[in-house]
Amino acid sequence: MDDVLLSVRDLVVQFPTRGGILTALDGISFDIKRGEVLGVVGESGAGKSMTGAAIIGLIEPPGRIAGGQIHLDGERIDNLSMDDMRAVRGKRIAMVFQDPLTSLNPLFTIAEQLVETIQTHLNVSAKEARDRAIALLDDVGIPAASRRIDDYPHQFSGGMRQRVVIALALAAEPDLVIADEPTTALDVSVQAQIIDVLKRLCSERGASVMLITHDMGVIAETADRVAVLYAGRLAEIGPVRDVIKDALHPYTHGLMGSIPTLAQEDDRLVQIPGAMPRLTDIPDGCAFNPRCDRVFDRCRVERPDPMPHGTRQVACWLYDEQQIKAAE
Amino acid sequence: MSDVLLEVKNLTRTFDVSLPWLNRVIEREDRQFLRAVDNVSFQIRRGETFALVGESGSGKSTIAKMVVGLLPASDGQILFDGQAMDVNSSAAMTQLRSRFQMIFQSPFASLNPRWRVRDVIAEPMKAFGTVDGKAAIDKRVDELLDLVGLGASDAGKFPHEFSGGQRQRIAIARALSSNPEFIVCDEPTSALDVSVQAQILNLMRDLQDELGLTYLFISHDLSVVRHMANRIGVLYLGALVETADGKELFKAPRHPYTRMLLEAVPDLEMTGKEQSVVKGEIPNPINPPSGCTFHPRCQYVAERCRNDIPVPVPTPTGEAKCFAVEEGRI
């Protein structure tokens, strides 16, 4: 059995606008293995959520996938019809959104929402679905699940609601869970609980996770590998430990330095000058070149594609073989 | 001149969250009060940064609003430079008001979208009459924009033409325009990306060094607080459970809640430390637990914690409200 569950190749997402075509994702490629947690990190507008939306087929028109391929378990899913995609979505790929308040329907009890999801995807009786729902709520750590299942979403706290959303996502036993900023709306003590639940349940069920977040700390705690996005392009991808301890791409390096940590003694944070370019206004060559402190001529004209470097891939001319040779 | 710029004594704020009168009569409910801030006292010395840290609902922003006079206190006193702040006395308040300013969390909501940047920044100068004449005001606006890392050419633009980080710079320029000594920063970087957050935090520290500002810095993010603060107060359900010097709090947290918060911070160093999973969530503030409000989540809980309310006991650099600390159990 091939152990790659999801493969994304040269994904391009474009939005036609009055001012021309806006490329939100520009040639993103990565794989997610079975049972692996892939972190996707980047700043607002880098294309993190767009990547998740493209995989699950939820790009809002007029946006569209303009190029590339997405394969789930060897089967191409980026060109499926609406109906075929609906069979994949929820059943094989599930999604956990940022705000648990908006992803639950306030007019239905938790039981109704869970049972509906389970019966849509699995062929079970209503009684069986309810029993499964209670077991799921139990698993995600909701106390007195058999009683609370008949409550409405507003009767739960933020952390408990996010647990319910995780239960909903896992209801159909998906192969891949895309979690888009699952803890951003929560307090740190609750965030730790939710990450723990998500990690534990996915590893028990053998589901892969694509964890989208802007918080490097969450990635460090959770992910096996991490992909760093910048301006709709992949800057660097590799094992979490390597990327965090020894970032290759100058952007990743700056990003890591700008995070205040509990251990550092230094008074000043590293700051990357400037801001991420607007998507309509991406510079030639490497998208990061105007802000990069190690920029050279080639970066301004030629765009680097991710190139292998040890355990990682990095889109930076500094790691081009010829460049390294020339430096020696 | 006293060393202490701001002193808060036994500050309390309750909100009436009762049902409407008719519902109370029909449903036989009593009036309900929410104690958002409960007997909080602290001092901020000149030139230092005092941080208040806590989770949502712990009363951080309520304290900030009371300190700048946007919200009257239910009980207790706020002394600014030795003078009591009285929200009802407008003449004395206007005098004091020009000496402190506030920076809000969302730079998208705190700048009027219909005003040009020049007018946004000039407003405090006009309101307090600190600078006279249009030419002088314009000159000062240009200086301020330069100070926060924007250009004089930005003065004619509208807020929507700027990114989040740039807008927060404008908000900082506005706060500085009346030459305040004291700035209350309510989650100034929570709405920003980390690389932009680093720029803003560095800017705030530079300005502090340059202008001798005193900050009350409010945040839920412990690593940001550690980076910014000289002294830290930890809030839980409206009460200050621990105060300590910045470095000390992180090296040797005393109160069990502080310990729990520190352990919950994701470990970016990847030291492989085992994260102890935090128990429970913040209880409903309308009906807080008896005794020490933290006792249902505390791993050092004893019988006494369930019944009695702890009083602050001195620790090496501050104080903590905990029986376990008092009895030397932790």
List descriptors.
heterodimer; A: 328 residues; alpha/beta; Rossmann fold; 8-stranded mixed sheet; 4-stranded antiparallel sheet; 34% helix; B: 330 residues; 2 domains; 12 helices; 12 strands; 22% strand; globular
Task: Characterize the structure shown.
The complex is a heterodimer of chains A (328) and B (330). In chain A, helix 3 packs across helix 4 (126-139) and helix 6 runs parallel beside helix 7. In chain A, the strands form two sheets. Chain A has an eight-stranded mixed β-sheet with strand order 6-7-8-3-9-10-12-11, with helices on both faces. In chain A, strands 2-1-4-5 form a four-stranded antiparallel β-sheet, covered by helices on one side. With 328 residues, chain A is of the alpha/beta class. Chain A has twelve helices and twelve strands. The model of chain A has no long low-confidence stretch (mean pLDDT 89). Chain A has one domain: P-loop containing nucleotide triphosphate hydrolases (Rossmann fold). The radius of gyration of chain A is 21 Å and the shape is globular. With 330 residues, chain B is of the alpha/beta class. Chain B folds into two domains: 4-99 and 181-326, 3-Layer(aba) Sandwich (Rossmann fold), CATH 3.40.50.300; 115-180. Helices cover 34% and strands 22% of the residues of chain B. Chain B contains twelve helices and twelve strands. Chain B has helices at residues 21-27, 60-67, 90-97, 117-128, 134-147, 164-176, 194-211, 222-228, 246-251, 256-264, 303-307, 323-326, and strands spanning 4-16, 33-45, 49-53, 75-80, 83-84, 100-103, 182-186, 214-219, 231-236, 239-245, 313-315, 318-320. In chain B, strand 11 (313-315) and strand 12 (318-320) form a beta hairpin. In chain B, helix 4 packs across helix 5 and helix 6 runs parallel beside helix 7 (194-211). The longest helix of chain B is centred in the middle third of the chain and has 18 residues, at 194-211. The radius of gyration of chain B is 21 Å and the shape is globular. The two termini of chain B are 39 Å apart. The model of chain B has no long low-confidence stretch (mean pLDDT 88). The interface between A and B is large, with 42 and 40 residues.
